[in-house]
Amino acid sequence: MRAHASLLHLDLDAFFAAVEQRDKPSLRGKPVVVGGVGSRGVVATASYEARKYGVRSAMSTREARSRCPHAAFLTGRFHAYREASTAVMTLLRSVSPLVEPLSLDEAFIDLEQAGLPDLEVPTVTAFAEELRGRVSEVTRGLTASVGLGTSKFIAKVASDLDKPDGLVVVPPGTEAELLRPMHVTVIPGVGPATAERLRRAGIHTVLDLEAVGLDELVRLVGKAHGTGLFHLARAEDDRAVVPEREAKSVSVEGTYDTDLTDRRLMEGLLTRQAGEVAERLRKHGLSGRTVSIKVRLHDFTTLSRSSTLHSPTDSTATIARLARGLLTDLDTSGGVRLLGVGVSGLADWIQEDLFGETTDEAEEPPEVVEPPSIRRSTWAPGMDVEHAEMGRGWVWGAGRGVVTVRFETAESPAGPVRSYPEDDPQLSAWRPPVTEDEQAG
User: Fold this and answer.
1) Binding-site positions for Mg(2+)
2) Number of domains in the chain
3) What protein family is recorded (predicted)?
């Protein structure tokens, strides 16, 4: 923990939904939900207007619709999210060389390298306030919540305290006072299972947790987790800002319209996914030691299993064999809605097989008739389109051979709504122009 509140956490507010509201004037101030729009979709982000109705990230779209049926349910436009994220990360890197992106919409910044005259609370507060204004400027109106503290943990907690569009600075020496009344789930890694285990032991708040000895925490949740909880309950966190966060894993998964029950079909799908993962590894000159599978059952229970090799591999056959083997340990008789294969523990080298154990590399993958995946239709709600006469707009809805479009952009007022046959030759998907960097890539 530092002597000054020199670690800053910035979190763009309701990011995906905010970008949609920015680019679609008719949705400003209204509930917006971004994610899968089908019956098996999952909410990625909900605007604050939708959150008032209990809609939240990771909720099923079906439940979100029941809670807020009048919301706009949109699929993602990742080109728009990437553009906004790139603008923010570029800005952050211009003020400090130590920026650690956690995702498209949040990052840590080390202000010790920001060239400030000092790191006292008034100075870092003024800097953070100015930074929030610059974020809004480069994103054309998006807001960010910012927290500053003496550690990454405290900065992250602080950024959540005054959302949206807030700024909270935790002065040095006040960290424990801030944390003690909070529920234990404020601590990273305390999910539902750990929280329930702690609850059974009578531990509800950080103050309760602070009173528990290290040995008891290790007994309750294991050595690594218990040690981490012991220190974080006391606001002890010395993690540094790491400017380069390399990919930790490569994975492929699919969600299916109909629950899978045929084990041979599942094995075939895992084999195909293993091939896609291996191809991506080889394309980027990577290999990995740990192969994992992800299985979501018919009742939304998600299971995962993994196996670690002695040395990294990019072999399709090896990854597929391990994935199929991991599946044998799971009871899938009730039906499977999602399957996925991943490889982690990445390296940039391959250990040659000295014993020639590569006979299965030449195996032909089994032929499988892949079941229909859940994927968006040609005209997905929210996607950008362009009409030869009306100009640019976005898909309001589609079905029964008709697509309805609202014609507006971020720079225009709320526009008119028109419906067209889905095969109308004057209507096409709109894509942003390719940049010089993309052309070079």
Assistant:
1) 11, 105
2) 4
3) Belongs to the DNA polymerase type-Y family.
